[in-house]
Amino acid sequence: MMLPGGMLIRAKSALIFAVLILMCMPFLAQGQADDVDRLIETLSTGNSSARVAAAATLGDMNDTRAIVPLIRALEDREFDVEYQAAKSLEKMREPAVEPLIRALKDNNSNVRWEAADILGAIGNSSAADPLFEATKDKDSVVRNVAAQALAKLGDLRATEPLIELLKSDSAWDRADAADALGELNDSRAVEPLISELDDEKGFVQESAAEALGKIRDSRAVVPLVQTIKYNSDYAVQEKARDALIDIGEPATDALIMALNDSDKLVRYHAAYCLAYSNDARAVVPLEYALSDEDKDVREMARNSVLRLEEAVDSKEGLVDHSEYNTTENLAAKADDTTIENETENVNAKTHENETSCENETSSENETLVGNETPGDEKSANESDIREYWSYENHEFGFALRFPDDWKDQDADSNNAGMIVGFLAPGEDPDRPSCFVVVQYEDLPRAYSVNQYAEASLQSLKGDHPDINIIEDRDVTISDLPAREWVYRVDQGEYLVLQRIVVTDQRAFVITFNSLSKRYAQLEGDAREMIDSFEFF
Q1: Residue 55 in contact with residue 43, Cβ under 8 Å?
Q2: How far apart are the first and last CA of the chain?
Q3: Domains of the chain
Q4: Pairwise CA distance, residues 499 & 508, whole Å
Q5: Do 45 and 72 touch, CB atoms closer than 8 A?
Q6: Is the dihedral of CA 80, 86, 89, 90 positive or negative?
Q7: Contact 158/151 with Cβ under 8 angstroms?
Q8: Are the beta carbons of 443 and 452 closer than 8 angstroms?
Q9: Is the pTM of this model over 0.85?
Q10: Up-side HSE of residue 340: CA atoms within 13 Å toward CB?
Q11: Lowest-pLDDT range of 91-100, 180-189, 196-205, 488-497
């Protein structure tokens, strides 16, 4: 699908926790037929719903006779048909490579960029030279998509076209180029990516910082520290901090110096980064930071020293305890307000969870914010108090709360469309049946929540003919209109609660999937999690 400004995103159906989520994005409806010729005819002559179903079924049948008709469907006037044809071609893999290479020369530019994108997703190296030639296409969208596809193949010839794409008027193009350059890991991109740290759009700055972390070039260290200091966007600061961690040892000296910066946020992030440096040189500077004037910096320094001493001590005794204080002696160096167990989370000012060395579960885009015990959960028996974590995702701009006995699981990097999931107590991570998952889909144009929901419902019915809709109602998420269903599938074995909201041309789907026999037991937790979902 092509978004305004040329940004290309192809949302994929996905697996999480090794099971198929019992919901469908609206453009993945599948028909059932075994007559290839009839389906090919339907693909060109049927109504839009029939064409979508034909495209999907042809992909499942994996018959090579369908390849050329599916390529022709890439120029269909209906987005849903075009989308499903592309998905089916991607599914057909190697047999589709040569026809798609030929399609790079098609007269229709839409067919050319779709072909380039699919070739990048398939990843066959035989497409490298044709994709490189496509980076010179007369159409800018084709050039951009071809460069990104070439980068997916790891071909460094994509570097120069992608650097040029960093100059695009489209912020989406610039972000996509930065992402691709990070995957290529070519040092030629370092200076151009450093320039993008000052881009006018925060999400471009985030992509540039993340890419610099992947390339791990020392030239990026000072600019990344300056980004933390001067950029007021916390999500960008967070990406810059994580990039400094990824760069590793070349960043240590600059981070030690940053512990003395006049900006407490810089000192805080420097202390955070040094915890992961595995460099004994950072221990003494961090111990001095235990006397910092700012409480949050002191607490972060304390946690960092504890973690760092443990890390370096386990690596062939790199810490000389006669020179550096042991963890038992840290209390003697820190003031009383630092040492006492502070129940306030560091996130009160910085949104970052670092409550203890045991609870380092935050990823680069998300934060688990402290243990919280809501007043309404308390009982006379202190052991019955329910504790909650707050999950924050700065990339997608949302947060939710979940009970501490539910286990958060990041989506696999191959699972496009998945953001995060939460396993119910007692579930096997490899074969779970009961969980809450958050998914998203980028949309090609503005859809109302009801338009998206109806398309999703049709897709669900196509995948699950036995579906039994129990509830269907209008609700809200963060004061935005939303849609909620409860339904049974697979002969009633599974009961599913699903809520959908659309914002900024992106759909978010929060799903509680459960075995029917456990639904009543888990519904309260799941609804509280879903009800707590909000954008920030």
Answers
A1: yes
A2: 27
A3: 363-377+387-535 (3.40.1000.10)
A4: 8
A5: no
A6: negative
A7: yes
A8: yes
A9: no
A10: 7
A11: 488-497
